[in-house]
Write a structure and sequence with these properties.
- The model has no long low-confidence stretch (mean pLDDT 96).
- α3 packs across α4.
- Helix content is 32%, strand content 26%.
- α11 links the parallel β15 and β16.
- The chain starts with a strand and ends in a 6-residue tail after the last strand.
- It contains eleven helices and 16 strands.
- The strands form three sheets. Strands 3, 5, 6, 7, 8, 15 and 16 form a seven-stranded mixed sheet that branches.
- It is of the alpha/beta class.
Length: 335
């Protein structure tokens, strides 16, 4: 089976002959017809998470998939050969930059009926991230004020739409060229990150979804109202994440140290900080698919690449400047 992997951290992706997926009793074998590309793929390749998310090498990358069910395990219910599905496979079972992948049925959902397979592949990781931040963690309510950084990006473009669907007043940061685009997605306030300081323009926000980290996160804490919350998806990871991940005591201490400064600053300001490492969840994908089919959320695909150009697709994503998602097409296309 054709796939794209790396052998050692920081090595470029290259094509490999990977073994066929093993199908467990609760697994669904999916023909990969499109695969989304995410910043997480690049960070894993670069070795940024090797201490907290160790993986055997070589590793086939890819966290998003849309395609067709080929076979199902003996205990699978609700899926059958020929079904059109999409998923973010769980950690330790990624590998959508390949012709086929076996996915636990709990991570899988029927693809939205109203969009293309390419658009469906763009959604799982970013839409689950937005859902878990806005709905699960923050319980965003109508009338609340939400700041979403990098609104034209993969997570941002979906999070704006979801926040607006929930009835929030939405601010976002974007470049001038993307200002009209993010307004079309639902942003009420657009801050040009090149010429404006969002900290000087915004105040009293209930929630900030931060995808940048560092100084941007620290400034985000200061636009929150007392009791407000910042959720970071770029880090630093916090002790709650370390506990949930089952990390050893030494790693827990190290992670606590990484986030100590931002947690102390948040406490002093009377606000909260949480790190979000999104997880696979097929039931949430079903809810997201319903929002897509109702017109509340639309996928944003900034560029597509054929399967043969998977390394170039990852490079294009890391170079930046694209709206929404990069998607790889045709991996498991029928000849």
């Amino acid at each position: 089976m054709r796939a794209f992997a790396f052998d050692t951290y920081s090595q470029p992706l290259h094509e490999v002959a990977a073994p066929e997926p093993e199908l467990g009793v609760r697994d669904v074998l999916v023909r990969v017809e499109a695969a989304g590309v995410n910043q997480l793929d690049e960070k894993i390749r670069a070795g940024e998470f090797k201490a907290i998310l160790p993986s055997p090498l070589p590793l086939v990358l890819g966290h998003d998939v849309a395609g067709t069910v080929l076979r199902v395990g003996s205990e699978v219910t609700g899926f059958a050969a020929g079904d059109r599905v999409f998923a973010r496979p769980r950690d330790q079972r990624i590998g959508t930059f390949a012709e086929r992948i076996a996915i636990d049925q709990a991570d899988l959902a029927p693809a939205p009926a109203s969009i293309s397979i390419v658009e469906a592949a763009s959604l799982p990781l970013v839409a689950l991230t937005a859902w878990q931040a806005l709905v699960e963690r923050a319980n965003v309510q109508a009338g609340q004020k939400v700041l979403i950084h990098a609104g034209a990006g993969g997570v941002g473009s979906i999070a704006i739409q979801l926040a607006k669907h929930l009835g929030a007043h939405v601010a976002t940061t974007a470049s001038v060229k993307n200002a009209d685009f993010v307004r079309e997605l639902g942003a009420d306030v657009v801050i040009d990150y090149r010429t404006q300081d969002f900290e000087e323009e915004l105040s009293g926000y209930d929630l900030v979804l931060d995808s940048l980290g560092g100084e941007n996160l620290e400034k985000s804490l200061r636009v929150l109202r007392p009791g407000g919350k910042a959720i970071g998806i770029a880090g630093p990871p916090d002790p709650a994440f370390a506990r949930a991940a089952g990390l050893n005591p030494l790693l827990r201490l190290a992670i606590a140290a990484l986030s100590r400064k931002v947690r102390a600053r948040a406490k002093k300001l009377g606000v909260g900080y949480e790190f979000l490492w999104m997880r696979a969840d097929g039931s949430q994908l079903r809810e997201i698919a319903a929002l897509v089919d109702s017109g509340s959320i639309r996928p944003v695909v900034g560029a597509t690449f054929p399967f043969d150009e998977t390394p170039q697709a990852l490079t294009a994503l890391t170079r930046g400047g694209l709206r929404g998602k990069v998607v790889i097409t045709g991996a498991g296309a029928v000849a």
